[in-house]
Structures are given as structure tokens and as C-alpha cells.
Amino acid sequence: MDGANMFETPATYRAMRSEYVLLAAGSAYLLWRKRARVRWPVAAGLFFYNDSIGYVPGAIAYRRSPERKISKLYYAAYNVMHSALTGVAVGATWARVVRPEWALLGIPLHIGVDRGLFGNFLKPFSVPFEPEPHPEWERVRGELAKPWEGFPAHAGGETHDANGRQAAVPVGQGTS
């Protein structure tokens, strides 16, 4: 959302997801339009490589763990393999070593589907590997959906700035 509020509200999350739906739709459209020139086994491999390395091992470990706790290495693998930077690096390397080709659209198609349709973004260590509501999110979700009306009044008449820090009150403008 911004540097001081590193979370999304339901509305900003939906807006962000809609951008990735457009990425998926654009990639799918171009693959369809160029379907006669697409090497489909290559496109499938480029679509699935990141889940094969970054998701499936963690999902298996998560399901096998009685406490549903797994190594942070699974999170790191997921995040690296689902990063747009990794996708660009894989695509650029493929284009340089093999050849530029329409099958490379499998990479942005996967990212667009994961984020836009399924709502899966990078995984922080503080949430379960598979989607489950975090108790803190459940607690604040309703408050974050309301329009901003300022920070609540604090005892002693203090005011706070946009970052929640105590702000100076001009002389003669106290709340007593």
C-alpha cells in the first residue's frame, strides 16, 4: 500500500489482482493469436517450472507436517521462483541461449494466473504456507475496510501524524 502501511485492504488487494488478470489475459491472448508458431511443450514447461520447483515441494511438506510448520527454505523457494525478477531472468536467459519465442509468454501467464485469479502473491514467513486467515488479519479486516477518518483520539489530547507518531499541537489549540 505504502511504505508506512505494508498491507493491503480488500479493495486495494482486488485492484492489484485485477492488474494481474490483465497480464494473464494479455499473455493468453497473444499465445492464442500466435498458436501456430508456439512450441507448446516449451510453453507448458515455462508455465509450470516455477511451481515444480517453488510450490509443489513446499505444498507436499506442508500437508505432511502434523503441525503445518515447514522450513523457511520452502517459502524462499516459492518466493524466488514466483518473483517477476526470476521470470525475467529465466525468459532473458532462454531467449539468449535457446531463442526468442512466443512460448516465453508461459512465464507471465503463470504469474498473472497465480496472482490475478488465485490471489497468490509472495509468501511471508508469518503466515501458513497454504492460504489460511491470519488471526491478526481477521481482527483488523473490518476496520481496514472503512474509509479513513483519522487516528482515534488519545487520552491527554495528543494528536498524531499520518504515521501514528505524536505530533506537536500548536499553542492554544489543545483539546482540553
Write the layout of secondary structure elements.
Elements: H1 10-33, H2 40-54, H3 56-64, H4 72-81, H5 84-97, H6 106-117, H7 135-145, E1 159-160, E2 166-167
Helix pairs in contact: 1-6, 2-4, 2-6
Name its key features:
176 residues, 7 helices, 2% strand
By DSSP (H or I, 4+ residues per run), the number of helices equals 7
How would you describe the shape? globular
Biggest sheet character? 2 strands, antiparallel
State the total count of DSSP E strands: 2
Strand line-up of the largest beta sheet: 1-2
Describe the structure.
This protein is mainly α. It has a domain at 10-129. 54% of the residues lie in helices and 2% in strands. It is built from seven helices and two strands, in the order αααααααββ. It has helices at residues 10-33, 40-54, 56-64, 72-81, 84-97, 106-117, 135-145, and strands at residues 159-160, 166-167. A two-stranded antiparallel ribbon has the order 1-2. A hairpin with a 5-residue loop joins β1 (159-160) and β2. The longest helix is centred in the first third of the chain and has 24 residues, at 10-33. It is globular and about 60 Å long. It starts with 9 loop residues before the first helix and ends in a 9-residue tail after the last strand. Residues 169-176 have low confidence and may be disordered.
